[in-house]
Every structure is written in structure tokens, then in C-alpha cells.
Specification:
- By secondary structure, this protein is mainly β.
- Among the domains are: 10-28 and 336-527, 3-Layer(aba) Sandwich (Rossmann fold), CATH 3.40.50.300; 232-329, Beta Barrel (Lipocalin).
- Helices cover 14% and strands 39% of the residues.
- The protein contains 8 helices and 37 strands.
- The strands form 9 sheets. Strands 3, 28, 29, 30, 31, 32, 33, 34 and 35 form a 9-stranded mixed β-sheet that branches.
- Strand 17 (188-193) and strand 18 form a beta hairpin.
- It is elongated.
- The relative contact order is 0.13.
Length: 544
């Protein structure tokens, strides 16, 4: 049992209690269960035609897209907003990708000719042109370590370039449509040949030919349209214009997995991507859904509704944040979403708690919640991670209790709130906990993490003692408790962060990854959660 402790004013600060607890490592890992909880967070309708390429910046802060409507859109991934729009009406724009600087990009052309263009995003001016291809460029990949990049064209050639020169540094003729990719270290690149073999080249001596070739069974019903190394460099993922993906060993060329079961009834290229930890592969489909497989087991982990009206041809995972981006003519950003329900008797302060936490606002007038209200909160969990909380403020009136099973469904955590100035609301907290435990549980059948909040601690009058609260927590398996004042903003953020840690820890344990996220048992560690706010001297009851 873990308790949260606070001091209401300076006098009480001297007698603050030291509470024992297990220290947590609050770093979230991408697991099967986490992937299943991805939900669409943002939908952007900035384009009037198909989006043909998306690319995240290396720091994960921005996303760039190119579209058949000749526009380039840059998105702010932190705020989830469009940041800048540029147009290339003269040449068109295709296959856009960042260089090593976030203010420059490369893209192919859809008009005039098949020249590759090097663009300054700051002032929308071209820095350099790279002529040479005589047909449409279908592959464009930037080196992860230097200014080299690869291009492949329907003229059946792969060309190696350097950003500093418009002259081609290397030329390779192929028997069919080319696909190519750099490895994560930028030392070698792979070329897909005739949809049946993969050749690996050393970048320093590529003119000598491949140093190894992997022969695979030829796909007769489809063509290879894309190739990517996994971030750890151990795997190669091959995408096609059919209903199949292939995963092979990057060192031996051994076929490891074949991913199927997604729809591609139009014979179009569908981009496939790895998660940053290389444990998952993602691919879009022509029915607007995203499919995910575990790369180790080959098992399909999830099928996500991405709210796309058309085929998902572009899909990438953010290299730094728990964010997945997908595109047809619309752009969506998919993030981890946790559902937290807030329950308790009427007038204990549930709605005010949500408003204070989400908007840092408080209203004195009381408005009864009808059924359920919703709110969203994006939490910056660390420098490289955000999580999204969906808060369900559930009405406490008895006539709504028949609907609680519906409201509780798929919840990840719960807050039960009572009023320190009303003994009856404290006694009813037990009824709410029992109702919750009988109607809602985690995948393994265990209760969802539930935190008990004793609200209105700013009032001098109280009918509930700390010893009684502690006894209730121990007896009814709450993960912890604390006193709060929604009116004064006391212990709101602290209690929610505590609950998020419990929720994420439990979430990871369900997938067997408790070593990395769960509590590391360090007996004797203590916490002091001190409030800076002085105690209010008001004695009248309030509906905060």
C-alpha cells in the first residue's frame, strides 16, 4: 500500500509523516498491450489530393509531408498542429524527406522532368538540382550519417548522390523496378532486384559490386515497392503492392516472417515501417486501417481504425515519441490513449477536479453532471514521451448507476473521490469501489488501479479522520490516497502523476515487462509531497 502525504500549512509541515513506498521507474516501453491502446489523436485535412510521402525529423519534433496537390506541409508533433505550408506548383512534389538539417528537404518531381530537388524550407528556394533520371523517381533515401542519398527510378537505375554536388556519384542498372535503403549506420545499402533478391553493397566500394546476395522466392502476384532496415540493423522489411510483407534477417538473408491479412485490393504501394525498438512492424491498408505485427513471433498484435477515408499509403513511427503517423489524403497522428474514470457521490468535486487538472480553472457555481462528461489531457511524461489521458467524469446520482458498466468499459485506472466534510460520501466510497471491481477489470482479471481522493481539505470542518481513510485503503485495495483541494489546486497534479505511474506499471506487467517499468524494490525510501498552499479558514461547505 502506498499513501501520498501533504501538509496543509506551515504549522502542519513540521509534523509531516514520512511514508514508505517502492520507488518506481516511470519509463514506458512499447509492448503488445500498449500498441493495442493507440488511438487517433489528431486528423488533419490540409490537402486536397493524395499524400505521397511523410517523414519525421530525426529529433521527432516535426513531420513533413508532400502531396499530389503540389503542397508541402510541416507539422508540429509536440502541439499536434500544422506549422507551415509550402507550394511547388511548377515542379510538383513527391517522396519528400528531411536531410540532416530540419530546414532543408529533398523531393522528387511530378512535372516538367524527373529531377530531384534540394529545397530550403526556410524561404522555399531551391539549393540544388540533381538531374539524371529519365523516368519517375520511386525511391528516395537519405543516409543516416552524412550527405549521401540514394534514388531509384522506373528507368531501372539506382543512383548514389551527395548533397554537395549535382553530379551522380554512382550508377547501378537493374533488370526491374528498384527499391533501396541504407542501414542504420550508413555503411551499407541494400538494393532489391526483380522482386526476388536483395544485394548488399559497401558504400565505400559499391563499384566493385555487392558483397553478398540473398535469394528469395519471387513474388509472382506483386512487386516489391519498398525496403527498410530495422532501427537495430538486424532485420529488413520488404513491402509490396500486394497483400504481403516479408521480413528477412539482415545478416544471413534468412526469411523470418511473412505478414499477411491486410487489404490491398487496388495493387498500390503501401508503406510499412518499424517501431523504434524494432519489435513491431506496421502497415496500412486500402480499407483505412493499420495492421501491426510482432517481429519476433510474427503474430498480429493489433488492427487499428485510423479514420482514413482512403488507402493508407504512408505510415511511419516517430523516432522519439510514442506517436504513429499515417496518411491518405488526410493525415492522422495516433498516440497512446489511457482511459481514467472519476467516480463518487454528487457534489464531492469530481467535475471541478477534472477542470482544475485539464484547464487549471475553478468555478464556484455547481452544475450537475448528466450521465458522463469527457475531457482530454496530454501529459508530457518525459523529454521524449507524451501520453494522452481521456478523463470520464461520471455522474454520482443514483439514477445513473445502471449505466456504470457501460461507462467503466475499457478503463485503465480510476479515481474515487469523497468529501472530507461529509461522512456519508466517505462511507459510499466503499460502495463505489465494490461496484467498480465487479464491473471492470484488467486483462488478467485483476482490479484496475484505483486512487482514493479526500477532497475539500481547505475547509476547517471535517468528519473523516486520516486513520479511517488508511484503514479503508488497506481493506479495499486502493493503490493510495491523499487529501486534495480542487478549489485551492492542492495535490491535483501530484495525485494524477502518481496514478499514471501505477497505471503504466500495471499496464507493462500485463505484457511481462515489469523489470523495466515496474517497481524496483528499494525498502526504506520515502517521499515528502509538500503543498505550498496555506490552509483556507473558510468553514462553509462548498461544492469544489
Amino acid at each position: 500500500m502506498t499513501y501520498l502525504s501533504k501538509a496543509r500549512d506551515k504549522k502542519e509541515a513540521d509534523s509531516i509523516v514520512e511514508i514508505k513506498h517502492w520507488r518506481k521507474i516511470s519509463k514506458m516501453k512499447l509492448t503488445d498491450n500498449v500498441v493495442r491502446n493507440y488511438r487517433v489523436a489528431k486528423i488533419f485535412r490540409e490537402n486536397t489530393d493524395r499524400i505521397n510521402r511523410i517523414d519525421f525529423s530525426s529529433d521527432g519534433n516535426t513531420l513533413i509531408s508532400s502531396s499530389d496537390d503540389d503542397s508541402i506541409v510541416i507539422y508540429d508533433c509536440q502541439n499536434g498542429t500544422p506549422k507551415k505550408t509550402l507550394n511547388s506548383k511548377k515542379y510538383g512534389v513527391d517522396l519528400i524527406c528531411y536531410t540532416h538539417a530540419v530546414n532543408t528537404a529533398l523531393h522528387g518531381s511530378t512535372k516538367v522532368d524527373d529531377t530531384i530537388r534540394y529545397l530550403s524550407l526556410h524561404d522555399n528556394k531551391y539549393i540544388r538540382y540533381f538531374p539524371g533520371h529519365t523516368k519517375k523517381v520511386v525511391s528516395l533515401n537519405m543516409s543516416p550519417i552524412n550527405d549521401s542519398f540514394l534514388s531509384g527510378s522506373l528507368d531501372k537505375t539506382i543512383r548514389l548522390w551527395d548533397l554537395r554536388s549535382q553530379n551522380c556519384q554512382g550508377l547501378m542498372h537493374l533488370p526491374g523496378r528498384p527499391v533501396a535503403a541504407f542501414d542504420p549506420e550508413g555503411l551499407i545499402f541494400a538494393a532489391g532486384i526483380n522482386s526476388e533478391s536483395v544485394k548488399l553493397y559497401d558504400l565505400r566500394s559499391f563499384d566493385r559490386g555487392p558483397f553478398t546476395t540473398f535469394k528469395l522466392t519471387q513474388d509472382k502476384d506483386c512487386d516489391w515497392t519498398g525496403m527498410k532496415f530495422s532501427p537495430d540493423g538486424k532485420l529488413i522489411l520488404i513491402s509490396t503492392n500486394g497483400q504481403i510483407l516479408r521480413l528477412i534477417d539482415a545478416f544471413q538473408g534468412t526469411p523470418l516472417q511473412t505478414f499477411m491479412g491486410f487489404q490491398n485490393n487496388k495493387g498500390i504501394p503501401l508503406e510499412a515501417s518499424f517501431s523504434p525498438d524494432s519489435r513491431f512492424a506496421f502497415c496500412g491498408s486500402t480499407d483505412g486501417r493499420i495492421h501491426c505485427w510482432n517481429t519476433e513471433t510474427g503474430v498480429k498484435v493489433a488492427v487499428m481504425n485510423a479514420d482514413h477515408p482512403g488507402p493508407i499509403q504512408c505510415l511511419q513511427f516517430n523516432p522519439k515519441y510514442m506517436m504513429l503517423a499515417s496518411a491518405c489524403s488526410n493525415m492522422t497522428m495516433t498516440e497512446i490513449l489511457f482511459k481514467v474514470i472519476i467516480i463518487g457521490d454528487p457534489t464531492v468535486g469530481k467535475t471541478s477536479f477534472v477542470q482544475r487538472y485539464v484547464n487549471d480553472a475553478y468555478r464556484r457555481d455547481y452544475k450537475m453532471t448528466i450521465g458522463v462528461d469527457f475531457a482530454l489531457k496530454v501529459v508530457k511524461w518525459s523529454d521524449t514521451q507524451t501520453i494522452k489521458l481521456q478523463l470520464w467524469d461520471i455522474a454520482g446520482q443514483e439514477r445513473f448507476t445502471s449505466m456504470t458498466r457501460v461507462y467503466y468499459k475499457d478503463a485503465h485506472a480510476c479515481i474515487i473521490m469523497f468529501d472530507l466534510t461529509q461522512q456519508s460520501t466517505f462511507q459510499n466510497a466503499v460502495k463505489w469501489k465494490k461496484d467498480l471491481d465487479t464491473k471492470c477489470s484488467l486483462a488478467d482479471g485483476s482490479p484496475i488501479p484505483c486512487l482514493l481522493l479526500a477532497n475539500k481539505c481547505d475547509l476547517s470542518h471535517r468528519e473523516v479522520q486520516q486513520s479511517d481513510i488508511e484503514d479503508m485503503c488497506k481493506e479495499h485495495d486502493f493503490v493510495g490516497w491523499t487529501e486534495t483541494s480542487v478549489k485551492e489546486g492542492l495535490m491535483i497534479d501530484e495525485s494524477m502523476r502518481f496514478l499514471c505511474e501505477e497505471m503504466m506499471t500495471k499496464h507493462a506487467e500485463l505484457d511481462g515487462f515489469s523489470n523495466s517499468m515496474a517497481r524496483s524494490m528499494v525498502p526504506g525510501s520515502t517521499i515528502h509531497l509538500r503543498s505550498q498552499q496555506s490552509q483556507s479558514k473558510e468553514s462553509s461547505a462548498c461544492s469544489c
